[in-house]
Amino acid sequence: MNRAPFLLRTLAFFLDLFVVGIVWFALFCAGVTGYLFGLQEPGFASLVREWDRFFATFLSFSFFAFFFYFTYLTAYGEKTVGKTLFGIRVVKTDGEPLGYLRSFLRCICYGVSWFPFLLGFLLALLLKGRSMHDILAGTIVIREE
């Protein structure tokens, strides 16, 4: 198996974040519009008064969108939109598909790689292309053949 270079992985990840961001923004705008129309007193002042409930809903949806995107697309398809464009995919260390549980675990472990200071991602420079979330989930990112 030919491991994917750090630069390709990084570019694919940021492209994926961009894709998730575009979809999230469109749905967020639709949600705000729907929420404003559903208020007893439509308007920005009502939204400000109920900001805590709106923010909790927004935050929950954001986590759901991130987890769904990265879990679903890497489970059996083995690649997200970014990985597809850069010709890389995620597999278990033995080369088999991840499945939903391992894919979800890998997605959760992004948090470990993110803090502190992206060190878990930077480990890929030292550990032959494996970031902290790959090590914890037992996965590897490879180039397509």
Top keywords for this entry?
145 residues; mainly alpha; 68% helix
Please give the order of strands in the largest beta sheet.
1-2
> Biggest sheet, in brief?
2 strands, antiparallel
Uncertain runs = none
Q: How many independent structural domains?
A: 1
Question: What is the element string, with H for helices and E for strands?
Answer: HHHHEHHHHE
Q: How far is it from the N-terminal to the C-terminal residue, by CA?
A: 9 Å
Number of helices: 8
Measured by DSSP, the beta-strand proportion falls in 5-15%
Which class best fits the helix and strand makeup?
Answer: mainly alpha
**How would you describe the shape?**
elongated
- Mean pLDDT across all residues, rounded? 88
The level of helicity is: 55-70%
Radius of gyration: 18 Å
Number of strands: 2
Structural description of this entry:
- With 145 residues, the chain is mainly alpha-helical.
- The protein has one domain.
- The protein has eight helices and two strands; from the N terminus they run H-H-H-H-E-H-H-H-H-E.
- The chain has helices spanning 6-38, 44-49, 51-75, 81-86, 99-108, 110-114, 119-126, 132-137, and strands spanning 88-92, 139-143.
- A two-stranded antiparallel ribbon has the order 1-2.
- The longest helix is centred in the first third of the chain and has 33 residues, at 6-38.
- It is elongated, with a radius of gyration of 18 Å.
- The model has no long low-confidence stretch (mean pLDDT 88).
Short description:
The protein is mainly alpha-helical and 145 residues long. Helices cover 68% and strands 7% of the residues.
